[in-house]
Amino acid sequence: MVNLIRRDVILQKKYLLTYIPFIVFFIIMESHPALTFLVASIFIPFNAFAYDEKAETNILLNSLPYTRKEIIAARYLGAIVYMVLAIGLTSLALLAFGEPFTMKDIAIGNSLFLLFAALTFPLFYILKSGHTFTVVLLSFLILAGIGPQIVIFLAERLTAITDFIARFSVSTLYTGAGVIVMVIYALSWGFTAFIYQRKAF
Amino acid sequence: MENVVELKNVAKKFKGFAVENINLEIKQGFVTGFMGENGAGKSTTIKMILNLLQPDAGEVKVFGLDYHSHEKAIKERIGFVYDGNVFFEGLNLKDIKRIVAPAYKRWDDDLFYKYIEQFELPLNKAIKTFSKGMQMKASLAIALSHHAELIILDEPTAGLDPIFRRELLDLLQELMVDGNRSIFFSTHITSDLDRIADYLAFIHKGELIFNQSVHEVAENYALVKGKLDLLDRDTEKAFVHIRRASTGFEALTDNSSEVKKTFGDRVVIERASLEDIMYYLKGGIHLG
Amino acid sequence: MQIIISNSSKEPIYEQITNQVKSAILTGELQEGAAIPSMRKLAKDLQISVITTKRAYEELEKSGFIYSIVGKGSFVAEQNLEVIREKKLHVIEEQLNAVITNSKEIGLSLDELQQLLTILYEE
């Protein structure tokens, strides 16, 4: 399983060189820190999907001693692992540029990432291969286009909700939102595993 | 365990194509050649053996185990070579090894480097720069480096020049000195099979026509030539396919001894090559 | 052990092998107890399928020319050469009788027959 997760980095060795400039670009563009955290998390997992498109990766992985459940688990767990790495790296980059950010930015950015991953991962397995790149591109354009608005919208909503249910502590609220996102993510995982189990290669 | 692979009444339907009622055995310690024209169902069958496809009906057993509960144990013992590259083409062999090797418990680095040297493959060049023959050798080096007991090759010789094909056959033959190893080898080039196949399975339009030893095939199938007046509704039954010409008939039989009994010296009976068998069965309506 | 296989011969390959091994044993080229290559190694060396050498070895075992010990290999069996020679002689006698019958039918003299035999034998 760890091998499957590690695989994404070996595959993207060359791309990883562009990873830091990619994050820096978003920082210099003065994007909302939450957006920076979001795109930084998206980078590796979605690049991996794009890369897997090129080769008959599913045939290879399924011919190796892995079960289909493991292959999907590696995708979903790997996304979390790379997300944690991305948080660390992005935080360092933000600090280096003297950009202020809060835990709230991290929470919003990565909740959005998990939500986005939960909604798009199944698509890669439902859609016929060949469309995947289009999915990545469209999703990314949409995200880059309306991402900041969503962040602002959600940030406002969150304050609104915070005001509305003032009797709850902020941490309870974040925990609650976090739990909901995790549940959606888990459901997506289960759904994808179900589809993948029946897929023909 | 005599059979490393057993397919029982296996069926799989697609839009406009189906394989049906496949009963196939791959014997341990031997080379089984899997022949059939393009689109006959060879790849579909191989995919079901590897659980890349799940059959609609029937049973697939590999090493006597089923995929439902022993998927990893089975695949641990299989080496695969596909028609075409399934490895990441932008990567070099070193990186591909780093991805594939940890998947196998019995991966043997020394063995891998031995094959790399033997096949004269560059470790640091991207796979996409490899010729077709080199790609096949790279796949083979990977397939052979975890002490697999069953090697499955799907059309490994397609698109290779004759010298490469010879080299591959030599290598496979070398592998067979180890009696625990079995090879399943699909091809539409029958001359690949003349030399190394011990057993033959022939698939045609999604149906397994036979699965016999090369000796049984040689004994049962024959080309029969004779004068047209020998043919009638009864005698025709001995033939799989008949080609009539003004000079006489030429036919394929799958029951050589019966033909000998019926016609005796009045016909010429010749050994049928695999190509003859494929050709006649392809054009043939089964009369028998 | 040297074996020459002809792919264009009408004689099946396993028969070519059995015949050549038999004659090597009968002429004394292969001595009793001598190890012969495993069927898998022989198949590789001759570039033929394993099942072919397997069949050849099975036939040789059946007719008592060789025996195999699992894990050790195959060996030339003890031959009662006298008996085999006598059997062969008997076969030759029968065949010659047929030749004589045929010769008499077309009026071929003993002299002519001997000349024919000499020519064929020395060919």
Radius of gyration of chain B: 21 Å
What oligomeric state is this? heterotrimer
C-alpha Rg of chain C, in Å? 18 Å
What is the class of the largest domain in chain B in the CATH system? Alpha Beta
CATH architecture heading of the largest domain in chain C: Orthogonal Bundle
Structural class of chain B: alpha/beta
How many domains comprise the coordinates of chain B?
2
Mean pLDDT of chain B: 90
- Whole-Å distance between the termini of chain B? 35 Å
Question: What is the CATH superfamily classification of the largest domain in chain C?
Answer: Winged helix-like DNA-binding domain superfamily/Winged helix DNA-binding domain
The CATH class of the largest domain in chain C is identified as Mainly Alpha
Count of individual beta strands of chain C:
3
Low-confidence stretches of chain C: none
Quick one: which chains have the greatest interface? A-B, 23 and 30 residues
Count of helical regions of chain B: 10
3D architecture notes:
The complex is a heterotrimer of chains A (about 200), B (about 290) and C (about 120). With about 200 residues, chain A is mainly alpha-helical. Chain A has 9 helices and no strands. Chain A has one domain. The radius of gyration of chain A is 18 Å and the shape is globular. With about 290 residues, chain B is of the alpha/beta class. Chain B folds into 2 domains: about 220 residues, Rossmann fold (3-Layer(aba) Sandwich); about 60 residues, Alpha-Beta Plaits (2-Layer Sandwich). Chain B is built from 10 helices and 14 strands. In chain B, the strands form 3 sheets. Chain B has a 6-stranded mixed β-sheet, sandwiched between helices. Chain B has a 4-stranded antiparallel β-sheet with strand order 2-1-4-5. A 4-stranded antiparallel β-sheet of chain B has the order 12-13-11-14, sandwiched between helices. In chain B, helix 4 runs antiparallel to helix 5. The longest helix of chain B is centred in the middle third of the chain and has 14 residues. In chain B, about 45% of the residues are buried. The mean pLDDT of chain B is about 90. Chain C has a 3-stranded antiparallel β-sheet. The two termini of chain C are about 25 Å apart. Classes of the chains: A mainly alpha (about 200), B alpha/beta (about 290), C mainly alpha (about 120). At the A-B interface, helix 1 and helix 5 of A face helix 2 and helix 3 of B.
